[in-house]
Amino acid sequence: MEWTAEIMTDPARDHELHVELRQDELYRARIYQDEQGKIQLQLYDGKPGILPVEWLTGIIDGFKNDLRTSGQSRINKNGANP
Questions:
Q1: Please, are residues 43 and 59 in contact by the beta-carbon 8 Å criterion?
Q2: Residue 14 burial class via C-beta count within 10 angstroms: exposed 0-12, middle 13-18, buried 19 and up
Q3: pLDDT digit string (tens) for 23-59?
């Protein structure tokens, strides 16, 4: 079982960034920023996989950095949500 992450844009949400999480070739979840600036993990239907916590934390930290550098972040400078 190998987990991968792809940073993508969502054309349905004005091309906002999100991360698609795959286990082998199956799309299992996505990480996105909601309207209030909270980073959310959305699990897709089907049998849930076990997410490696350290790996997931690294992906989330990278996503926050990508949001900041893209100018799309709604996270305060101190890292907190508004």
A1: no
A2: exposed
A3: 998 998 988 888 888 888 888 876 655 667 788 899 9
